[in-house]
């Protein structure tokens, strides 16, 4: 393959990866926000209109970035990315989210940081919408270009031998980790909540 052909091929791959990130971002943020706003409209006088207005304003800003070809601001560290995800998630309701950090060396690349942030965002969305939980504990550590993240809730839990995997879990969480060369593990029992563990880099080869 000639240098020019190689460069073209690499450009196509990069553009396809960025498009995939954009699609998942629209699913994880815009779609979730619009669904929340639509559901609030059915609550009548019981709706928190101030919260709905804040969410609508925030989403308008995000969409403006997308229209202009900018997917928000470039992410910083994994810690700051996850802190932003938590702040966004708490805008939807009163779910208590506790964030604990282990070692953080800032070694993750931009794509991995974005994708892990998206996976955690989807996990917190699932908790809010389906788990009937009051508290979530999020733990993260980052070393040598790899990361370990766990999301644990105190909700209803489920029998995983009978429960089916939704598209959010299959594509926005498990699929993200697999594309990064990592893996996602889900553990749950009825009445004992859910534990989601994301592993990339060196952590992916370690036992749970």
Account of the 3D structure:
The protein has 208 residues and is an alpha+beta fold. It has two domains: 1-73, no CATH class; 75-208, 2-Layer Sandwich (Heat Shock Protein 90), CATH 3.30.565.10. The protein contains five helices and five strands; from the N terminus they run αααβαββαββ. The chain has helices at 3-40, 49-67, 78-90, 110-131, 167-179, and strands at 96-104, 135-143, 146-153, 183-188, 194-200. Strands 1-2-3-5-4 form a five-stranded mixed sheet, with helices on one face. The longest helix is centred in the first third of the chain and has 38 residues, at 3-40. It is globular. It starts with a helix and ends in an 8-residue tail after the last strand.
Please give a quick description of this structure.
The protein has 208 residues and is α+β, with helices and mostly antiparallel strands.
Individual helix count: 5
CATH class of the largest domain: Alpha Beta
Give the biggest sheet.
Answer: 5 strands, mixed
For the termini, the CA-CA separation is 42 Å
Strand content: 15-25%
Spans of at least 5 consecutive residues with low confidence:
none
- SS elements, strand count: 5
- Average pLDDT, rounded to a whole number, is 80
* The CATH superfamily title of the largest domain: Histidine kinase-like ATPase, C-terminal domain
CATH topology of the largest domain: Heat Shock Protein 90
Which structural class do the helices and strands define? alpha+beta
As for the number of domains, it is 2
Helix content: 40-55%
N-to-C SSE string, H for helix and E for strand: HHHEHEEHEE
Principal-axis shape equals globular
**Strands in their spatial order, largest beta sheet:** 1-2-3-5-4
């Amino acid at each position: 393959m000639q240098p020019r052909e190689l460069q073209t091929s690499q450009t196509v791959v990069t553009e396809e990866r960025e498009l995939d990130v954009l699609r998942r971002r629209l699913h994880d943020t815009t779609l979730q926000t619009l669904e929340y706003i639509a559901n609030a409209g059915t609550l009548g006088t019981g709706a928190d209109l101030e919260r709905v207005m804040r969410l609508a304003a925030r989403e308008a800003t995000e969409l403006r970035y997308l229209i202009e070809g900018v997917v928000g601001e470039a992410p910083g560290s994994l810690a700051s990315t996850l802190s932003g995800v938590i702040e966004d998630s708490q805008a939807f309701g009163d779910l208590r989210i506790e964030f604990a950090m282990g070692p953080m060396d800032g070694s993750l690349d931009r794509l991995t940081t974005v994708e892990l942030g998206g996976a955690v965002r989807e996990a917190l969305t699932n908790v809010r919408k389906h788990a009937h939980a009051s508290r979530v504990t999020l733990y993260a550590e980052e070393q040598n270009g790899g990361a370990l993240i766990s999301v644990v809730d105190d909700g209803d839990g489920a029998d995983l031998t009978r429960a089916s995997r939704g598209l959010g879990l299959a594509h926005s969480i498990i699929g993200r980790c697999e594309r990064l060369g990592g893996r996602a593990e889900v553990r749950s029992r009825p009445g004992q909540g859910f534990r989601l563990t994301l592993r990339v880099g060196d952590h992916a080869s370690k036992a749970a």
